[in-house]
Design goal:
The chain is built from 21 helices and 22 strands. By secondary structure, the protein is an alpha/beta fold. The structure holds ligand C2E and calcium ion (2 copies). One calcium ion binds next to strand 19. This is EAL domain-containing protein (Putative c-di-GMP-specific phosphodiesterase class I).
């Protein structure tokens, strides 16, 4: 703002107050238009304006005599007027060094005379002006005219203050809202030694939706007012209750001992638990109280978000109340950040990629299969392991898109290997959500055909637990995959339900014994016994057995001794990118008992 006015000393608070009026960019309001019109007639000026001085512009709430909506702040006369307590008068703008080169003076509308009275809130913050404009020079307003202009301004401010206080009130409960809570808490935080904010969720927001659909808005409003009344009786006299969301209330506890505070929270929790009846219909509440000590938290923390989140967790976990926990909060924020960026990752080049880890025949050392393992290079958070993001994705429908992405990428790569003459097969990890999709096997068949990969070259790895989620659907899809000619491996075997009755019904080819049983070998006799029984059982049922997590040559010897058919693990090879796997394969022609010393050096772990 090279030629513009200086900024008021309270500019930030001024802008906050201006926003709190909700007037900026709001539709026309006859009350404002009438005042502008009266001002124009009373003072016999062609233009009268109610102008709000925003950060970089002045926005006209009402303008009589001109067709305009806003101008840049640097040309604004009103930006000068808000610096003054009384009326700013410019008799002839062409003679005033501040304005003589102003485009609104030299060009349209050709301002010569200006008189602007600031619109000041009860806290002393000037939001804008009521101003009179003429295109001819004029004499200054006399004292009775100034009184009149000030009166009009006062009328206007009454209206603005009323609108402002409305924006601090929840329309249904008539309680102060979250903006008021934020402002009150900030003011009290500076004075109180101990300021505790409590958010009270009364029921699930999802439940609110059902309730609105079933019983309608009126019933909801009556119910929420009933809960409000109940809650108010549970709080000490004079405690201000806030309504901060459709199913959420809040209150502040100032300078109370931890014991008193605890007692109050228990009282609220118990008082809200159970049935609440409105209009003869009982509703089961499920309260969740989030608690945060504002004096012990960093001032930069968005505490209201953290508080609401804490109450949500308390409600979902049915713990009643819960104190804000920064570690949990950060983990939740990270999980949210990851989940939100996954859809982008799926569609951008280079964020997701595949590694492949060989599975070798323990007797011959030949690589029979490579397992595809997903990798994610997050543009901001760096490398994210699948153990972190796959379980998150599995909570949403995103996992299906991920699986299809993986299947496409694996088949594309595999087709190249096949064309180059490689004979190993490839395995793909899939999750219970994939098997819930009634068209999964069909789509896999389409993709196999598209990439011209024979189904017999592909194996799908599923965990026991993922089968149990929806057994019949899972079995139908696995049957269909098997029918195509693909193989099925049971992954992490031994860690799940181990329900043999169910497992027998799954068309299985390979059992992959989980690393946790393998790692302790050969020293751990119990593990050795378990592994041997698993191997015997699997062989008796006609399955091949793979030992996962082969980390040393001793383990390799042990699993061979115990009858496992194949091995996979860091001692044999780390997971690696496709081109590195090709190099590894060129050198991995030695017997496993001799070790895989020819692995690319970056992948040798022992
Ligand atoms: P998993 O299917 O059991 O894969 C084996 C995991 O063990 C891999 O971890 C692999 O890097 C690691 N591993 C291999 N050899 C050894 C060893 O000798 N010692 C130890 N300690 N670990 C070894 P990764 O790649 O981090 O994958 C973790 C899990 O993420 C996988 O476990 C699988 O459940 C899931 N996952 C990975 N890729 C995909 C995918 O494309 N789709 C789905 N649905 N899940 C995937
Ligand atoms: Ca696996
Ligand atoms: Ca596994």
């Amino acid at each position: 703002m090279s030629n513009g006015a200086a900024l008021p000393h309270n500019e930030i608070e001024r802008l906050v107050a201006l926003r709190s009026t909700n007037l900026l960019d709001s539709p026309a309001d006859p009350a404002f238009d009438h005042i502008a019109e009266i001002a124009s007639e009373l003072f016999d000026v062609p233009i009268a304006v109610i102008s709000l001085v925003d950060k970089n512009r002045q926005w006209f709430k009402s303008i009589h005599g001109l067709d305009a909506q806003e101008t840049p702040r640097e040309y604004s006369f009103c930006a000068h007027a808000i610096l003054k307590e009384d009326v700013l008068q410019v008799k002839d703008a062409l003679l005033d060094p501040r304005f003589k080169d102003n485009p609104l003076v030299t060009g349209e509308p050709g301002i010569r005379f200006y008189a602007g009275v600031p619109l000041v809130t009860h806290e002393g913050l000037a939001l804008g002006t009521l101003c009179l404009v003429d295109t001819h020079p004029r004499a200054e307003l006399d004292s009775s005219q100034l009184r009149l202009l000030t009166k009009l301004r006062d009328m206007l401010m009454e209206r603005i203050e009323a609108l402002r206080s409305l924006s601090y009130v929840d329309p249904i409960t008539r309680l102060p809202n979250r903006s008021r809570l934020l402002e009150d808490a900030e003011a009290m935080r500076r004075e109180a030694n101990e300021l505790v904010a409590v958010s009270v969720d009364v029921f699930d927001p999802g439940y609110l939706n059902d309730l609105l659909n079933a019983l309608g808005q009126d019933h909801y409003e009556g119910l929420i007012r009933t809960i409000q009344a109940r809650l108010q009786t549970l709080l000490p006299d004079g405690t201000r209750l806030y309504c901060i969301g459709a199913t959420r209330f809040a209150f502040l506890v100032q300078n109370q001992s931890p014991a008193t505070c605890k007692g109050l929270l228990k009282k609220v929790e118990l008082g809200l638990t159970g049935l609440i009846e409105y209009n003869g219909i009982p509703i089961e509440t499920r309260p969740g109280l989030g608690i945060i000590n504002l004096n012990s938290e960093d001032e930069t923390l968005d505490w209201l978000r953290a508080l609401i989140c804490t109450a949500d967790v308390a409600r979902e976990m049915r713990t009643g109340s819960r104190y804000y926990d920064s570690v949990h909060d950060r983990a939740q924020q990270r999980a949210f950040a990851l989940l939100s960026s996954l859809p982008v990752a799926l569609h951008s080049e280079g964020q997701l990629s595949l590694f492949f880890q060989p599975r070798v025949d323990l007797k011959t050392g030949i690589c029979r299969c490579v397992e595809s393992l997903l990798r994610w290079a997050h543009p901001k958070l760096g490398a994210i392991g699948p153990t972190e993001f796959i379980p998150l994705a599995e909570k949403t429908a995103l996992i299906r898109s991920i699986s299809y992405w993986v299947i496409d990428a694996v088949l594309e790569q595999y087709a190249r290997w096949k064309a180059a003459g490689h004979t190993f097969s490839v395995s793909i990890n899939i999750s219970s959500h994939d098997l819930d999709d009634p068209h999964f096997a069909e789509r896999v068949a389409e993709k196999l055909a598209l990439h011209r990969v024979p189904p017999s070259c592909v194996e799908f790895e599923v965990t026991e637990n993922s089968l149990m989620c929806n057994f019949d659907n899972a079995r139908a899809q696995l049957d269909a995959l098997r029918h195509l000619g693909a193989s099925i491996a049971i992954d992490d075997f031994g860690t799940g339900y181990n329900n043999l009755i169910y497992l027998r019904q799954i068309p299985t080819d390979v059992i992959k014994i989980d690393q946790s049983f393998i790692r302790g070998l050969p020293g751990d006799d119990k593990d050795a016994l378990i592994v041997r029984s698993m191997v015997d059982l699997a062989h008796a049922l006609g399955y091949q057995v793979t030992a996962e997590g082969v980390e040393t040559s001793n383990v390799l010897e042990a699993v061979l001794e115990l009858g496992c058919d194949e091995g996979q693990g860091y001692h044999i090879a780390l997971p690696m990118a496709a081109n590195e796997l090709e190099t590894w394969l060129e050198h991995a022609d030695r017997h496993p008992r001799l070790g895989y010393g020819n692995s690319p050096s970056s992948f040798v772990t022992n």
